[in-house]
Amino acid sequence: MTFSPELEQRFAEMAAKYPEGRQKACLIPMLMYAQDEVGYMTEELKEEIAKRLGISVLEVNEVVGYYTMMRKKRMGKTHLQICTNISCLLWDGDKLWERACQKLGIGHNEVTADGAISLEEVECIGACSWAPAIQTNYDFHHNVTPEQLDKLIDDLRKA
Amino acid sequence: MADVTFTVNGKSLQAPAGTLLIDACKRSGIEIPAFCYYEGLALQAACRMCLVEVEKAPKLLAGCTLPVAEGMVVHTESPAVVKARKTTLEFLLTNHPLDCPVCDKGGECELQDMVFRYGAGESRFTEIKHHVDEKQWSPVVYFDAPRCILCYRCVRICDEGLGVKALGVTNRGAYAEITPNKGDHLECDECGSCIDICPVGALTSGIYRYQTRPWEMEHVGTICTHCSNGCKTTLGVKNDQIIRGNNRDRSGINGEFLCVKGRYAFDFVGHAERLQSPLMRVDGKLVEVSWSKALAHVAQKFSEIKAAGGKFGVIGSEHTTNEENFYLQKFARQGLGTPHIDHRRSGDVPALLDAVSGKSGALATTADLYNAKAVLIIGSDLSQQHPFLAYQIRSDARHHQAKIFTVTEGPVREDKVAAKKVRAAAGEQLAAVMGLAEDLRAAGDLVVVFGDSIQGSAVGELVSFIDSLGVPAKYVCLVDYANSRGALDMGLAPHLGPGYHAAAQTGMSLSEMLADATLDALWVVGSNPLKSAKLASEKAFVVVQELFLTETAQRADVVLPAASAYEKSGTVTNVCGEAQRLRKAVSVMGAKADLDIFGLLARGMRLDLGQAAPDKVFEEIRTSVHGYNVPLPVIATGGAAMTAPVNGRLPAAAQPPAIQSARDSLFTSGSLGRYSKVLKTVLEAPGGLYKP
Predict the structure, then answer these.
(1) Closest residue of B to A57, CA-based?
(2) Which domains, and CATH codes, for chain A?
(3) What pLDDT, in 10s, does the model give residues B447-473?
(4) Which option is the CATH number for B279-343+483-645: 1.20.1260.10, 3.40.50.410, 3.40.50.10860, 3.40.50.740?
(5) Is the Cβ pair A61, B168 closer than 8 Å?
(6) 10 Å Cβ neighbour count for B91?
């Protein structure tokens, strides 16, 4: 399995940063960057990364299984993550979550039929000062109101 | 390191600085309970069972990762500690089924013991327990996830102890689960160490599960009869059947280590094709006869051939006891008056003894492999052929940072911990070793382990090369089976008598006997030479003592069903020369121990060879065989006593003997392996997918 030239370049630079024999330490960043390109943790991807780092697929699975940000199935083009952890909850993050579920007709870790949007209820995303916060792919949206959420979803649908 | 003084439960204790509190307490008889902590494995600090109260510390500390310090004051059973443990147990039981009466581990479960001790049977959790169905990962390994307390012992023993890394943990929190390396099944050594080390009933053995309760068995500590490493295996016996093998009491040289053979491959004992009656050739066909008829026939024929001055060939075994081997060579040399005695040879031990003559302490014990600063492995895939020696070496590298050097034909597992690895064909390995001179000199305090690629004059060259390095060195000459070493020590060789003294008369070697068309009688004890060779003499009267109807037994005129090592007493000597005692675990109807058969034949032939009882013969060995004057209490209590074979030059063989290792893998074991269902049903069995 090969990746885009940019990603290959990135992997090469990353591997060089670690002392010889410690390349295993690249595992998490490699998986994350590869996920951005491939979409989710396919068997082929896990095998490839294991091969490149000289570890077993089981070792890759241990890491992939542990982190929720490593996706086990293909998600939507835009992955909408709504925080319902304590700070956001106090600012009605849970209401945002319910509203999004209703509007999209999908639940936790589910994808819309057209594959455009997927939804995930997440734990703290580190934006407590701007609660309630939501995240679309890698972009943050702060102090989100129900109206803003509706507009965001409408925009995503149009896009 | 210097000792520090600290106080535990009001008792003043001392231990070297840096000792972990849990270890220091254990040595002083104070128990700190723990699930995840395991002596010899990496620290985990996952289970929180070992929490103790340390004065001046703001909260309870984990005793398994806490090094003792000067003036430290510790309480291991204070009310706060007891409460914490009870809470930990309550947590561990949130998803753990409370069905001890039907759990296979009941009675020897560490969690059960702790809950019983701290009384945490009641829970505040009312939620429905998270259930996952039981899975079978291999013919020998079953996994029941809800019982797992995630102590990671299995993960660590497989990775660190065995070097296999077949187990991992996937997912997180309450959903975390031990996972095998191939998704839904295991591809590994199938050694079962993970099952033994499991403190609960999460990992269970396909061979043993639901057969019995641990307290219903009798536990017989004996020596594994497969390879030459001499591991102690404690057989669980019920109703005259072996139900399981393990070594949880850590008795013996191997501690708790066992490979798939020591733990499971005892099943050949009850194989349906086991011979249970003597067979005699009548009208060209082998028919069952009584013991008295068979023995009388053999004694009569032997007497006739002896009286006529006929030529006897005697082939001994690599599995029979020292007592049997000693008695057999005595029978051959004194009783039958033949010098033609040999056995299949797998390592050139005589050449090694000859090469190290004049040195003291030149032979390594299995413990030396764990303590050496450096180990040189020549020409053997140890993990496959000598799993316990490999385990010792791996542990040495892990615990003592020993430098390991491998000089082998192909890649071996020891490469992973090796300071240097060299690939060389069998004939070029000695030269390759010499290329490592600088590294070996720098490493110092060396143990050299060599296989059949170094034999004859090469052994002397190897020893003088190592001598030239000027570092202290010890040697292990690898041999194949449980008593291959003992067979040589007891003089089952054409030119060597017991204790490697020159035989009065040099006889024919095994291959010469088979090729001699004038041979009048061939007596084969526990060996299968006709598997790969033909018997030239058509007139030879062939007597075979065997467990199964092997190729050799099929050619016999009389087949006498023999007892296996698990069905008799005696001593065996392992690859390093450590003598250990066999204890009889079961009896198989119809079979007799080889020593009993010798005794009955001697009586039938009216020979005076002394009483054929294990203890009597062993006493004779102790007083007459060089190096076997071992302390009886050590042997009698199940310990290993290092023998010290002759220190001096050895008589040369008439011609270089054919020495070749059978190269058994983890899943083969000569003709015994052919009759072990376990060894044949694991996926990794030869021909399977496993690439170790």
Answers:
(1) B181
(2) 5-66 (1.10.10), 78-158 (3.40.30.10)
(3) 999 999 999 999 999 999 999 999 999
(4) 3.40.50.740
(5) yes
(6) 16
* Interface test mutation site (partner B, options A62, A67, A70, max chain B beta carbons within 10 A): A62
Is the distance from CB of B259 to CB of B389 less than 8 angstroms?
no
Edge to edge, what strands does the sheet with A117-122 contain? A110-111, A117-122, A78-83, A134-136, A139-141
Q: Which CATH number is correct for B349-478, 3.90.1150.10, 3.40.50.1000, 3.40.228.10, 3.30.1120.10?
A: 3.40.228.10
How far off is chain B from A66, nearest CA to CA, in Å?
A: 5
B181 reaches A (C-beta below 8 A): yes
Inter-chain CB pairs, A–B, below 8 Å: 28
∠ Cα B172 B178 B183 (to 5°): 105
Nearest to B218 by CA among B197, B196, B239: B239
Residue pair A136/A83 in contact (Cβ under 8 Å)? The answer is no
Q: Give the pLDDT confidence score for residue B686 in this predicted structure.
A: 66
- Return the structure tokens found at A36: 């951005």
CA atoms within 13 Å, Cβ hemisphere of B536: 11
Mutate to test the interface with B, among A53, A58, A69 (most CBs of B within 10 A): A58
B169–A contact, CB cutoff 8 A:
yes
Partners of B180 on chain A (C-beta within 8 Å) are: 58
Enumerate the residues of chain A whose CB falls inside 8 A of the CB of residue B166: 58
Which residues on chain A are in Cβ contact (under 8 Å) with B692? Answer: none
Band (pLDDT 50/70/90 cuts) for residue B646 is confident
Domain spans of chain B? 3-92, 100-270, 279-343+483-645, 349-478
Distance from CA of B170 to the nearest CA of A (A): 4
B168 with A57: Cβ contact below 8 A: no
CA distance A155 to chain B (A): 35
User: By the CB < 8 Å criterion, does B432 face chain A?
Assistant: no
Nearest Cβ partner of B165 from A56, A65, A66? A56
Query: What is the tens place of the pLDDT at every residue in B90-128?
Result: 999 999 999 999 999 999 999 999 999 998 778 898 889
Q: In angstroms, rounded to a whole number, what is the distance separating the alpha carbons of residues B52 and B49?
A: 9
Question: Is B180 in Cβ contact with A65 (below 8 Å)?
Answer: no
Cβ–Cβ contact B163 with A under 8 A: no
Say how many CA atoms lie within 13 Å of B51 toward its Cβ.
Answer: 20
**Which architecture characterizes domain B100-270 according to CATH?**
2-Layer Sandwich (3.30)
Establish how many alpha carbons lie within 13 A of residue B238's alpha carbon, considering only the half-sphere containing its beta carbon. Answer: 12
| Cβ–Cβ gap B170/A57 under 8 Å | no
- CA distances B10 to B20, B30, B32, B60, B251, Å, are 18, 12, 15, 18, 33
Per-residue pLDDT tens digits of chain A, which is 159 residues long: 889 999 999 999 999 999 988 889 999 999 999 999 999 999 999 999 999 999 999 999 999 999 999 999 999 999 999 999 999 999 999 999 999 999 999 999 999 999 999 999 999 999 999 999 999 999 999 999 999 999 999 999 887
Pick the CATH number of B3-92 from 3.10.20.740, 3.50.30.20, 3.30.300.30, 3.40.50.720: 3.10.20.740
Q: What is the ipTM of this complex?
A: 0.87
Sorted by sequence, the CB contacts under 8 Å of residue B545 that are 6+ apart come out as B524, B525, B526, B559, B560, B561, B562, B594, B597
CB B492 within 8 A of CB B353: no
CA dist list (Å): B488 to A87, A135, B663? 78, 76, 19
Using DSSP bridges, classify how beta strands B312-315 and B232-238 pair: parallel, antiparallel or unpaired. Answer: unpaired
Q: Residue with structure tokens 């595992």?
A: A27
